[in-house]
Amino acid sequence: MSILKIALLAGLIVCAVSVSFTKKLLTALIIYLSYSTIMAVVWVLLQSPDLAITEAAVGAGITGILFFVTLKKIRAVDEEEEHEP
Amino acid sequence: MSRKKQDYEHSFLYHFRQWVAGNVDPLEGTMEIRVPQKKAAETVAPDLKQIRTVYDPSKNKELKRFNRLYKASSLLLVLLLMGVLIWAMGFMPEIGAEAAPAHNATAGRYVEKGLEETGAVNFVTGMILDYRAFDTFGESCVLFIATICVQILLRVDKDSSWRKGRKTEEAEDSFRPGEDVVLQKVSTVLVPLIFIFGIYVILNGHLSPGGGFSGGAIVGAGLILYVNAFGFEKTERFFTGKTFKIITVASLSFYALAKTYSFYTGANHLPTGIPLGVPGAILSSGLILPLNICVGMVVACTMYAFYALFRKGGF
């Protein structure tokens, strides 16, 4: 197993664990999107480029957009920004 | 004469044609989920002090005990599940082992005869749109049903009181995000490239990695970027609910008509009469290319419809 693969798999585990320990919804969402991006690279290394394209487009792209819109609708993004300063 | 006309205006066919033409929306006023307005007398102010004492673990001993039991039992359950899964992993065949159940005659047949029988250089597409076309049909229908369910939950009527009440607020501005100059300039360059890449992925589904699903998702993402940059007025010139209905229903019907015969004959192929062509050419592998286009259009429409419904409750 090469160093790249080990680093990617470790990144997957770190992302998966840190999503459940994050309190802020927006931060958790961005970590989840980075999980999908790493997963797309892992699919390429596992020699399944079909899945990699789908993962990058659906997992890291459209799911993220829908989550962002939902967070805006329930005003989770705005409220957090108000509390920050 | 006049009576005949009256009858026609009350007939089912007339209503159906009006619905197809988009003049009448039978869902208008009946689908939207509204929050019932409370009367002032019905709302009783909750006793906050009592609620706080009940839910404070330091004062409520039963709750404290329950919290401890809950944590201990959930930890036990998770550890038990982990143990079972790790124990079951020991029985799995080694990766690449010859005796593994995944290495049966089916996979060998796909690899050996796939190119000859389907004409697709990309085995994966040859498998999902020829041997396993029924599964892909089901997946496309799942996307269609998902759009309908989102519409049931998130639909907002055109003359809804919710929308009217909000028009004065700044929330209405979030429907029209077309003022950002940087986003507009960047998307002027990017959106055509994204569309071309998505169409390339769809059309080359049988030659290179990709296919209807991933290509459709890319085109849908391009549409969403376009909406974000220029607002819904621009997209509504070429993409409305009517377009969505026509494209989705036409694609799914074509898929069903093109493939149903093999579903009913137990996947025994009748010759389609379409030549398989030279493997590697763009016009090859029979029905796979049109089916890829169908799946791609359904997926792209679904993605855009999701976004529009999430954003403003209709399209």
How would you explain this protein's 3D organization?
The complex is a heterodimer of chains A (85) and B (315). In chain A, helix 1 (3-21) runs antiparallel to helix 2 and helix 2 packs antiparallel against helix 3 (49-73). Chain A has 85 residues and is an all-alpha fold. Chain A is flat and about 45 Å long. Chain A has helices spanning 3-21, 25-45, 49-73, 76-83. The longest helix of chain A has 25 residues, at 49-73. Chain A is 86% helix and 0% strand. Chain B has 315 residues and is mostly helical. Among the domains of chain B are: 44-87; 122-158 and 177-312, no CATH class. The two termini of chain B are 39 Å apart. The A-B interface holds A 48-50, 52-54, 57-58, 61-62, 65-66, 69-70, 72-73 and B 122, 124-125, 174, 201, 209-211, 213-214, 217-218, 220-221, 224, 303, 306-307, 310-311.
Key descriptive features of the protein:
heterodimer, A: 85 residues, mainly alpha, 4 helices, 0% strand, flat, B: 315 residues, 13 helices, extended
